[in-house]
Amino acid sequence: MKITLPQMIARGIVYALLVIVFCGPFWGILATAFTKNTVQPGQLVLWPSEPTLDHFAYAWTKVRVWVYLFNSLFVVVIGTVLQTLVSALAAYALARKKFRGAAIVSLAILSTMMLPDEVIAIPLYLILHAKLPVLHTTLYNTYAAMILPVVGWAFSVFLLTEFMKAIPRDLEDAARVDGANEFQIFWRVVLPLVKPALGTATIFGFLMIWDQYLLPLIAVDDRNLYTLPVVLRSLRVDEIMQQNIFIAVTVIATVPCIVVYLLLQKQFNRGLMSGAVKG
Q1: 168 Cα distance to chain centroid
Q2: Contacts from 57-66 at CB under 8 Å and sequence distance 24+?
Q3: Which pLDDT score is estimated for 150?
Q4: What is the DSSP string of 145-190?
Q5: What is the pLDDT of residues 239-260, one digit of tens each?
Q6: 251, 205, 215: which is closest to 34 by C-alpha?
Q7: DSSP-derived secondary structure letter, 130
Q8: What predicted TM-score, i.e. pTM, was given to this entire model?
């Protein structure tokens, strides 16, 4: 059917409104970060006056944002890799193996999604301060204190379990006939078939770990180990810090998330489409 001129105008208006709603705030942040004139807290500009990189240079050298960026990247990369691996192994056991208490284990894993972080903050704080049996030291003020608590995530386990359940068992039987062991079946047969789900779990896991604020706050008190979310909060309440510099640090903090999404966008879209078809 041929599109009339009023329909084209209506579509253009709708598209323009969508761009303004979804891209407008991000553009305001970018413009504020690059503008030379100092802005007041809560104020955003629509176009940078005298564009400059001075605020980013100040944030990088004086605020030492590179230290906190390294901490965040180290925690999120190691945590995401371990989380995806552990979730895939747990999902393989729940989806492909039959054992007593499987339903109870699945229910216990899913029940952890119902607990907010504030509920487990005090128990986690006590665990991180407890001395390890052999090493006679604590995890407090270490990278491990920020990584180990996020290795197990019920959402990734649940997502991968549902995808693995849809894989025909004939593929596993054929692999066993060819002499493949359990690990080879998991690595060479099951994982390649759930790549879209792995991409989706990786993106959500990356964002979950990257946005962690309460965990780093109770896991470390050494400022050299702070992650970007903790530093952003401290800069937000700093009355001396200029709003432009705070916005520049915010822009730096959003770049890794955008890069990861762009790299895994294909797998993420396939995962969503597969879930929609299954539903």
Answers
A1: 31
A2: 58/245, 58/248, 59/245, 59/248, 59/249, 59/252, 63/231, 63/235, 63/245, 63/249, 65/228, 65/231, 65/249, 65/252
A3: 93
A4: HHHGGGT--HHHHHHHHHHHHTS-HHHHHHHHHTT--HHHIIIIII
A5: 667 788 888 898 999 989 888 8
A6: 251
A7: S
A8: 0.85
Residue type, 209: I
pLDDT range class, residue 274, cuts 50, 70, 90: low
3-state secondary structure of 205: helix
Distance of alpha carbon 208 from alpha carbon 117, whole angstroms: 12
Residue pair 232/253 in contact by the 8 Å Cβ criterion: yes
106, 94 in Cβ contact below 8 A? yes
**Residue 156 token pair:** 């990734």
The first and second tokens of residue 135, run together, are 């090493």
Q: Tens digits of per-residue pLDDT, 190-221?
A: 998 888 889 889 989 999 999 999 999 999 99
Question: Using CB atoms within 10 A of its CB, is residue 222 exposed (0-12), middle (13-18) or buried (19+)?
Answer: exposed
